[in-house]
Specification:
By secondary structure, the protein is of the alpha+beta class. The protein is built from eleven helices and 18 strands. The chain binds adenosine monophosphate.
């Protein structure tokens, strides 16, 4: 493993806030970033050396992009997998495409966690109205119907109660292939965030306790309460097994429900994650910096807490308009993502506070 020297170029597929924060961490270490994204406005490209605006399946644009980079990564998990196979010979790609493939399919990721000894909500595949009815019989109510692909932040989801008109729910998910999940009675939600280096070394950050509102992450804080800490070892062991089995390199996030019967795996993100934004100021080394270190073959940084307690609040939609008041508290670390108009449910920024 030869470390990539400063001045090398890191290619990032995806142009959102995660790419922006990766780009800033990469710049700190002396790297250049080249962003590849289909959207005209990329908040990542604003802080990067180069920007290719092209579709994710444009093989000639992808080839030119990969040729111009020394290592490739992604910040968006719905990048189509097939075109990536065409470019992974041109520059090392971390995390592996296989991880993306699993994470893009809610059924595949649950099966993967189960195969490695994890527990998940009861689930059944739904392809039409008939299989929806069978699935609801199987997993019971209340249930959550989620599109197998492309869902995030509670989008592409419907909650089903006993006696509901299933046809209406089926229309709500646009009759897309879905997974029906039994409702997990959880006390808390948390995530395991780890980084795996090219030599297989794994480091975990403190486990954040995550609070969601309307299916969107609202608050992450660390250290987590004792009820979560009691489940941490089992959850970390599963996440590490998943990372090892995928020969993973970079930051991997696994989301869990904390239940009386132990941790229940919900989903994984093969990338830096919103529930790790607190690590920018709240950990000795942030998730962004360690992702860059891992993919560039550098030694990993310390993942320990930098304060007694850390709390991160997302700024969703109009909440970001409150920036003057947030800045008036000199203890707040304010991050705004540079997105133009705030829309309901849109992640516009976050604010982190450390307690000593
Ligand atoms: P997801 O898109 O899978 O992350 O779901 C978004 C949020 O919906 C989760 O963070 C939970 O708060 C809730 N949720 C998802 N699946 C379930 C489930 N099977 N049981 C209970 N709550 C769930």
């Amino acid at each position: 493993m030869t470390p990539l020297p400063p001045g090398s170029t890191i290619g990032i597929l995806g142009g959102g806030q995660l790419g922006r924060m990766l780009g800033m961490a990469a710049a700190q270490l002396g790297y250049r970033c080249h962003i590849y994204a289909p959207d005209p406005d990329s908040v990542a490209a604003e802080v990067a050396a180069e920007f290719t605006r092209a579709q994710n399946n444009d093989i000639s644009a992808l080839t030119a992009f990969a040729d111009s980079c020394d290592v490739l990564t992604f910040e968006f998990e719905n990048v189509p997998v097939d075109p990536l196979h065409e470019i992974e010979e041109l520059a090392p790609l971390h995390p592996p495409v296989g991880a993306l493939d699993i994470a893009q399919n809610r059924i595949a990721e649950k099966n993967y966690a189960r195969e490695l000894g994890g527990s998940t909500a009861p689930f059944a595949e739904v392809t039409d109205l008939e299989t929806l009815a069978q699935a609801i019989d199987e997993v019971g109510t209340p249930a959550i119907l989620k599109t197998i692909r492309m869902g995030y932040d509670g989008k592409g989801q419907a909650r089903i109660k006993a006696g509901d008109d299933l046809g209406q729910h089926w229309d709500m998910v646009d009759q897309q292939p879905c997974v029906a999940e039994g409702f997990v009675e959880f006390d808390h939600e948390f995530s395991v965030i780890l980084v795996r280096a090219q030599d297989g070394e794994i480091r975990f950050w403190d486990t954040p306790w995550n609070v969601h509102e309307n299916g969107i992450l609202a608050i992450s804080s660390a250290p987590a309460p004792p009820e979560i800490l009691a489940l941490q070892e089992t959850a970390q062991a599963l996440a590490a097994k998943m990372a090892d089995a995928m020969s993973y390199v970079g930051v991997l996030t696994c989301e869990f429900f904390a239940t009386a019967d132990g941790p229940v795996f919900n989903e994984m993100a093969p990338r830096v994650h919103n529930s790790g934004h607190w690590t920018i100021e709240g950990a000795i080394t942030s998730q962004f910096e360690n992702h860059i270190r891992a993919i560039c073959g550098l030694p990993l940084g310390d993942t320990g807490l930098a304060a007694k307690r850390v709390e991160m609040h997302n700024l969703i939609g109009k909440q970001a308009d409150n920036w003057p008041a947030l800045l008036a508290d000199g203890q707040n670390h304010l991050h705004l993502y540079g997105k133009g108009a705030s829309r309901p449910g849109r992640k516009m920024g976050h604010v982190t506070k450390l307690f000593f």
